[in-house]
Amino acid sequence: MPSYKAPLNDYKFLFDKVFSVYNNYRDISNFNDLSPELTDTILSQAGKFAEQELQPLNYPGHEEGCHWNNGEVITPRGYKAAYEKYIASGWTQISEKPTYGGQGLPRIINAAISEMNLSACTAFGIYVTRDGSIAAIENNASDALKEKYLPKLIDGTWGGPMCMTEPHCGSDLGLIRTKAIPQSDNTYQISGTKMFITGGDSDLGENNINLVLARHPDSPQGIKGISLFIVPKFLVNDDGSLGKRNEVRCGSIEHKMGLNGSATCVMNFDNATGYLVGEINKGMRAMFSMVNKSRFTIGQQGTALAEVAYQNAVIYALERRQMRALTGPQDSDHSADPIIVHPDVRRMLLTQRAFAEGSRALNTYIALLFDKQECSPSEQVRQASTALLDLLTPICKGFNSELCTESVNLGLQTFGGHGFIRENGMEQFVRDARAAQIYEGTTGIQGVDLLGRKILASKGQLLKVFNKEIQQFCEANNNTGALKPFITPLAQLNQEWLDLTLTIGSAAISNPNEVGAASVDYLMYSGYVTFAYCWAMMAKSAHEEIMANGSSPFYESKIRTARFYYQRILPRVSLHAELMVSGCDNLMDTEANDFLLF
Ligand SMILES: Cc1cc2nc3c(=O)[nH]c(=O)nc-3n(C[C@H](O)[C@H](O)[C@H](O)COP(=O)(O)OP(=O)(O)OC[C@H]3O[C@@H](n4cnc5c(N)ncnc54)[C@H](O)[C@@H]3O)c2cc1C
């Protein structure tokens, strides 16, 4: 059975050394009360909860799955008790604003806690991540709606499913058919069917505050005619108590390849009462205000599963004995050496480690951007952070989730045939990881978003901001001999990234298909370069610590993993570069019907 240990040392390294959060962010209000001691206390408690309360639910919950009974969803045994403990301890409130009952601590703290929850029990971790729904209400709803719904969403008494997808539309929300008919009392009657709704119903909270995209009858077709509504499962009285049951019901739950403990619901709205969030026809704008947060959560899911699969693969590789090392027996007390002596097993383990730790650094960088975006006193810093978040969100979501799938598969592979056996738990990680490449926008959609909507639409400006930051980092560290193996290739790739963007942008002027044809390779290329920056920052901090305080296994290991990343993973960029400039003709020359020639 798999185990899990919260990566507290890695978080300490990232917070204290790599990002110096206790020194560099003093001007940001939510960092005022943060100290290393407070962070250590919170994260070690959260880690303990993840290890002791959540991890034991993971495999049994996967085997049992959710139950549907006459429109009500029952989560696996143990989930409800753990949920009650979780919210009683105030974990859902950590980084939310104090105005509505949050504790106002930095997002980086919440991000670390989310990763631990998602590693220990991914399906459970999803139920307690609701930053996206909270952001959509906080940034768009009237004060009356905020006062009514936010406190209980934030304290975890109520859930907040996001109801966008319909049977005929997922990527293309402009096709949404769910109707919103205005009523004389300023409410709306919502009718339609949503599908794939995570936690659309569950026994965990007292109420569910569904955020629903729907269309006013007079609205234009397409994306410009979509509005956002709050549609509670139980109507809420003015004094905050629960009123009558609303006409929204869970029609069924999906039988999925993984995430069995997370209910994926068909939701039927039948003249249900809804309340407009923001302006009519501005629903997509309202959703975009939360999209960065919810996509970031999926990127974190990638890190979380890569980490737990890595931890278990390492433990197995140290115990499992097969054959002798190529250089001769390493352990003469046994008839075979542990498989960790074999270079190829090490290739698998180090790949997993480089992905898990690289993506954790990226997530921390992004969580700091959320903090700056929300709380910096400087308008310039807030705007620059928004620009970087727009650029890095599709990379975090798309790239982390792609690498996660590779990583959990390597974890399974390290177990050999035993990885294929259910009760060893490695196959659950593979199953649970797969959805991250799909929901909140597939990898294909992240690629188009990054290259088309973000980079080319801004005429390269969004990329240039990040590019300049990397260039300054390279210039500042160029003279440190020990860092040359990182800085030299990083500086070259940083320039190549701009050049490739220009090449594709120019080709796209005469043929827009060039963008779609290049986009996923461009996303992967961007991800590898972004991770290279993260690994260079980590190598620099580890090197400085060793210089200042002498050798330490943790810091030496960081530098070795950075070297592994640069020598064995980063060369993948060449392939992606070649593919993205190979043009769209090799894809578009084939007539649609010719695909049927089998
Ligand atoms: C477990 C799970 C939980 C989910 N939870 C939620 C939830 O809580 N709320 C919610 O609203 N939805 C949820 N979803 C739905 C999810 O967001 C959609 O499945 C996803 O956005 C893809 O939409 P689709 O399934 O309709 O695929 P489609 O949009 O039909 O896409 C099919 C294929 O076409 C590709 N494609 C489509 N358009 C383009 C394009 N323009 N360029 C390139 N490629 C393109 C896609 O990449 C994909 O490979 C969930 C899904 C799953 C599996």
Can you walk me through this structure?
There is one protein chain. It contains 19 helices and 12 strands. Among the domains are: 8-137, Acyl-CoA dehydrogenase/oxidase, N-terminal domain (Butyryl-Coa Dehydrogenase, subunit A, domain 1, Orthogonal Bundle); 139-145 and 158-283, Butyryl-CoA Dehydrogenase, subunit A, domain 2, CATH 2.40.110.20; 459-588. The mean pLDDT is 96. It is of the alpha+beta class. Strands 3, 4, 5, 6, 7, 8, 11 and 12 form an 8-stranded mixed beta sheet that branches. A two-stranded antiparallel ribbon has the order 1-2. Helices cover 56% and strands 11% of the residues. The chain has helices spanning 8-18, 21-24, 36-64, 79-88, 107-120, 122-127, 131-140, 143-154, 283-319, 343-375, 379-414, 426-434, 443-456, 461-477, 484-510, 513-549, 553-569, 572-580, 585-588, and strands at residues 67-69, 72-74, 158-159, 162-163, 179-182, 188-198, 207-215, 226-232, 234-236, 242-245, 248-253, 264-277. Helix 7 runs antiparallel to helix 9 (283-319), helix 9 packs antiparallel against helix 10 and helix 10 crosses helix 16. Residues 161-165, 170-171, 196-198, 256, 259, 264, 435, 438-442, 444-445, 448, 516 line the site of flavin-adenine dinucleotide.
